[in-house]
Design brief:
Blueprint lengths: L4 H7 L25 H10 L3 H14 L3 E3 L9 H15 L4 E8 L6 H21 L7 E8 L16 E9 L4 H4 L3 H5 L1 H8 L8
Parallel strand pairs: 2-3
Antiparallel strand pairs: 1-4, 2-4
Helix pairs in contact: 4-5
Amino acid sequence: MHVSRRALMLGLAAAPLAACSTDHELGAQIDEGGFGNPTAHNILVQTGQLPFVIDLAERFAAEVPDTVYFAFGSARLDGAAEAVLRRQADWIRQFPEVTFRVFGHTDLVGSEAYNRRLGLQRARTVVAFLVRNGVSRSRLEAVISEGETQPVIQTPDRERRNRRAVTVVSGFLQNHPMITNGQYAAVVHREYVESATAPRPTGYR
């Protein structure tokens, strides 16, 4: 699914915005969720990291499925979800300087409190699987539940496309030497540079 740069800028490293009116101060509706998302977003902006994070987020979304789906009332991964998460883990391991977040979602069946808990269980399940497949837990910044608040399909009935967990690029690992030296572009373009300088195959003219 294509994601615009504007959408990524609005969504990266910040919790989703609730519906707001002109009566509120700008940013007042950001749901902190206990994870300091507005602060994280401000740091990305102030340190010049945000454009590079957006580039990586676009690559991740283009090269790897970012979403897995769940059975009704379940936080267990099926074979299809595990296959997607193995691909995610493979991609994530190629970029040890990059951090990620996992957002858990539900459909609208059941109470809001139940769905918030279920969304969190789904996000935790994804994180646990990624860790078992070689991703450092320190690079998975936060496990966030959106519960039933962000359905893909607006329906009060059971809907598989709403029962999901989404993995997103969220920033850079601040204690990594390349990031300490401000080499964000080198991280983003590493594979492009290596492919351009790779030895030519035998017989190439």
